[in-house]
Design brief:
183 residues; alpha+beta; hpI Integrase, Chain A; 2 domains; 6 strands; 16% strand; globular
Length: 183
């Protein structure tokens, strides 16, 4: 399940597209996955994937030609639903019950748009032929402002502590290190 979710998170694929992937669609040397059979008459596309996802894929059994073993959508959904319910109960967070496979597609579109500010790139990433469909996926969220908290470290131990609580290094000046963190 974790491999399926990581794949959906990194690529923005639909669950049906992910379940149809063949091992021949995965290039372990180039760390790419080719989606040859998109759903909803979308465009085929290629994704660069992380080392983490590549390692997760390498741990899967290769009993047949399908990456996820030919499991049906219903089987995967029932497994995910059970895990989601257990997690929501254990963590006391009913909002987890609102997360679905397709939520990761919306998340990917929103994050890529925020990162690139290029709606045509996001359209291509999702395989859409019509920009109107992409606009539905891309949540125009107001992310952090440009306000920062700043801190100074006078030695490596202080710098390490600042980094551990989320500060990022900016520069050094007269034997001090300057750090910042978004408010």
């Amino acid at each position: 399940m974790s491999t399926v979710l990581q794949l959906l998170k990194e690529t923005g694929m639909r669950i049906g597209e992910a379940l149809r992937l063949d091992w021949s669609d995965v290039d372990f040397e180039k760390r790419t996955i080719v989606l040859n059979y998109p759903e909803k008459h979308g465009n085929p596309r290629m994704f660069k994937i992380s080392e983490k996802l590549m390692a997760m894929l390498n741990r899967l059994p290769r009993d047949n030609g399908k990456v996820f073993g030919g499991n049906s959508w219903r089987t995967i959904f029932n497994n995910f639903n059970a895990q989601r319910k257990r997690s929501a109960k254990k963590l006391g967070n009913p909002r987890l019950l609102k997360i679905h496979f397709h939520t990761l597609r919306h998340w990917k579109a929103t994050m890529e748009y925020h990162r690139t500010k290029d709606i045509l790139y996001v359209m291509k990433l999702l395989g859409h032929k019509n920009i109107a469909n992409t606009l539905i996926y891309t949540q125009l969220v107001e992310f952090e402002g440009d306000e920062y908290s700043s801190a100074v470290a006078y030695n490596m131990d202080e710098a390490k502590k600042l980094i551990e609580v989320g500060f990022e290094y900016v520069c050094s000046h007269d034997e001090t290190m300057l750090f910042r963190k978004r408010k």
